[in-house]
Amino acid sequence: MRPNYNTDEHYLLPFARYLTKDDLAAFKANSNIVVYEKKEVIFRQNTRTSHIMCIKSGLVKIYKEGRNNRYIILKIAVENDFLGLMSIYGSDMHQFSASAIQTCEICFIDINVFNKILKTSGDFSFQIINQLSSDGLFIFERLMSQSHKQLPGRIADVILYFSEIIFNSQEFEFPLTRRELAELAGTTKESFIRTLAEFKNDKIIDLEGSRVKINSLKIIRTLSELG
Questions:
Q1: What pLDDT, on a 0 to 100 scale, did the predictor assign at position 16?
Q2: Which of 32, 82, 89, 188 has the maximal Cβ count within 10 Å?
Q3: Sign (positive or negative) of CA dihedral 114, 115, 118, 120
Q4: How many independent structural domains does the chain possess?
Q5: Are residues 7 and 67 in the same domain?
Q6: Number of C-alpha atoms within 13 angstroms, CB side, residue 195?
Q7: Are residues 133 and 21 part of one domain?
Q8: Which pLDDT score, from 0 to 100, does residue 181 have?
Q9: What's the pLDDT at 6?
Q10: Are residues 120 and 222 in the same domain?
Q11: Is residue 144 in a domain?
Q12: How does DSSP assign the chain, residue by residue?
């Protein structure tokens, strides 16, 4: 990782329209940008929380570490997402880990300054509460999917996630390895690859390496819904 001090635009936060000029100036004076290269760990599970973090560019993998080097990928965080808010306001230790999927710029904000502004800006605080709730509900949905859906439904969920949430396109490139995709789907690498190949053979998708083109969004959504 390396520090990167650039222009004012790097200090524009999510929900910045709810902040005063003084608030934004306080954030700028008490934050800095750090660049993480692909696969670098941004923070690790069971380490102490210390800063508010926000993604300025790139994709970040949020994952829970278990026993025997097993992982569950909870979500992919994108540009303008805050990182670790649930840990910061629910514990003094990070409850999961985060690593860079690609080169990322992460804005680190002094937590005391952030908390001070939360107390004085009701509109900004309301947006943060909404963000916390959305993050929690999303993770609940992911865990329910892994627990109750059959494998084709879980693979369909992963495809829809990248298509509709991450890239907003029916053509995209998986930014994760096959093993990581399997962790996101809650299955084994072999099962993920086999099911993906079945989708390709059935002409539901085109697949060339990590490049995906959805041929039938209707079928993918049906598989997701039926589970």
A1: 87
A2: 82
A3: negative
A4: 2
A5: yes
A6: 22
A7: yes
A8: 93
A9: 40
A10: no
A11: no
A12: -EE----GGGGPPTTGGGS-HHHHHHHHHTEEEEEE-TT-EEE-TTSBP-EEEEEEES-EEEEEE-GGG-EEEEEEE-TT-EESHHHHTT-SB-SSEEEESS-EEEEEEEHHHHHHHHHH-HHHHHHHHHHHHHHHHHHHHHHHHHHHS-HHHHHHHHHHIIIIIIS-SSEEE--S-HHHHHHHHTS-HHHHHHHHHHHHHTTSEEEETTEEEES-HHHHHHHHHH-
Q: How are strands ordered across the β-sheet holding 171-173?
A: 171-173, 211-214, 205-208
Q: Which residues of the chain have pLDDT under 50?
A: 3-10
Q: In whole angstroms, what is the distance from residue 127 CA to residue 81 CA?
A: 12
Report the distance separating Cα 190 and Cα 28, nearest Å: 47
Tell me: do 132 and 153 sit in the same domain.
no
Which residues make beta-bridge pairs with 211?
Answer: 173, 208
Report whether 191 contacts 182 (CB < 8 A): yes
Distances (CA, A) of 18 to 10, 29, 81: 17, 18, 16
The verdict on residue 143 lying in a domain is no
User: Of 103, 138, 173, which residue sits at a domain end?
Assistant: 138
Tokens encoding 147? 């627990």
* Residue 204 within any structural domain of the chain: yes
Which residue in the block uniquely carries the two structure tokens 């560019």? 57
**190 token code pair:** 């072999």
Asked whether residue 128 falls in the same domain as residue 205, the answer is: no
pLDDT at 186: 86
